[in-house]
Structures are given as C-alpha cells and as structure tokens.
Amino acid sequence: MAHYYTENFSKETSLKPKKETIDFLLNYSKALSVINYKKLQFESINN
Amino acid sequence: MDQNLQDSALVTLYLKGEEKALELLIDRHSQRIYSFIYSKVYDKDVAEDIFQDTFIKVIRTLKRGAYNEEGKFLPWVMRISHNLIIDYFRRNSRMPKFQGSDDFNIFSVLGDPSPNAERQLIKDQVELDVQKLIEVLPEEQREVLIMRMYKDMSFKEIADKTGVSINTALGRMRYAIINLRKLVEKNNIILTN
User: Fold this and answer.
1) What ipTM is given for this predicted complex?
2) Where are the domains positioned within chain A?
3) Do A16 and B26 touch (CB under 8 A)?
4) Do A21 and B52 touch (CB under 8 A)?
5) Domain coordinates of chain B in residue numbers?
6) Which residues of B touch A30 (CB under 8 A)?
7) pLDDT tens digits, one per residue of B5-56
8) Which of A19, A45, B54, B103 could in theory staple to B81 by disulfide, Cβ–Cβ 3.0 to 4.6 A?
9) Environment class of residue B34 by beta-carbon count within 10 Å: exposed (0-12), middle (13-18) or buried (19+)?
10) Which numeric CATH code is attached to B7-94?
C-alpha cells in the first residue's frame, strides 16, 4: 500500500492578527468622525 | 445582527453608523487578509502593522463616503493591503533591515562605545570626587594641574602663564599628583571605573 510521506502542518500556527489590533481598529472606528462642510471634509478623533 | 449578511449589506449598515457591522467584517476576513500579508512579509510584527494600516485606510475611506465598490469588499481590502506591502518593500529597499541569526550576531562586531547608565554614573561620581580633591591642593599646584589636565596646555605655556620655569611647573605638577594620591589613600576613595 502506498504511503504518503508528508507531514501535517501544525495547526497551532494560526495566522490571525492580535486581539489588541482588532480592538484598536474597532475603537478607532468608533472615535473617528468625518464632518462635511460644503465641499470640504474634516476628520476628527473623539477620544 | 445577522451573521449571514453579505459584505455589501454589512458595509451599508456600517455606513449608517452600525459599528458592529465592521466588527463582523473584520472577523470574517481578518485571517485571510492577515495570512496574505504574512505570506509576503514573513514577519508577524510587520504583518500586524500592515494589517492595522489596511483597516485604518478602510475605515477612513468608508467614513468619508468614498467607497464605491459595493459587493467587492474583500478584493478592495486585499488591494489596499497589497499596496501597503509594496510601500513597505520600497521603504525597506531604501533602508534594508539586517536581521541577525544564531550563527552571526551583528552586535558581536558592532558595539556601542558610550558607557551605559551605571558606568556613566560612576564616571560622573569619580570626576566629582577628583574635582573636590583638587580643591584641597595648594594654590600653585592646583593651578598647574588644572592648566595641564583640564585646559590641555603644554608645560611651556603653563610656565609662561604662571611666570615660573618649565622645571618648576613640572615639579608642581608632580607634587600635585603625589598629593592627590595621598588624599585618595587617606580618605579611602575609590577612583576606578
């Protein structure tokens, strides 16, 4: 019977961003507001 | 919020102020985008930075109402991250990063000659102690020592300035050093760095 001479990759190597990064992005999104004035746009971070 | 909503619907909800929609979008695509970035840069910290910058750009574009690719959210985000990866490599080719390995560590050949904080403190203390000792020396010896050691003057210049012969200046310097040594011994002062 043929054998497969391959190894499984470790499942521990999860390629996901850190929770802190995600939290930062969600907080950034909540804090960022864009104000439109006539043809101008202003960004402000309300923290 | 319905987990099965399509990306375009989530984008629309987010544009209406529903922050949870962004959370779902990030959660849905984070692994794919992060893996894509990591597969190019092979550095977790750099991948993390580029991932963050990608979504900062996504959030800003969405909030400014400049997003017009409804239904193609993921390819759009991938394109942003792709551009940021290119920026990263451009920056790095101008300023290549050297990474040491176990076999060769750059710090074994490159040193920082400046003293560390502890040594600097000791050095300052020693210099202060020496200054105090010099204050105790007789006037003419102190004068010669300061001119020679601190002002870097030659004995000829010192002799001219103080109006004595070079031999006298040399003698005063010699006595200054002898007296300093005596003071160090007498007061048990450690003057080593």
Assistant:
1) 0.73
2) 17-47
3) no
4) yes
5) 7-94, 117-186
6) 19
7) 889 899 999 999 999 999 999 999 999 999 999 999 989 999 999 999 999 9
8) B54
9) buried
10) 1.10.1740.10
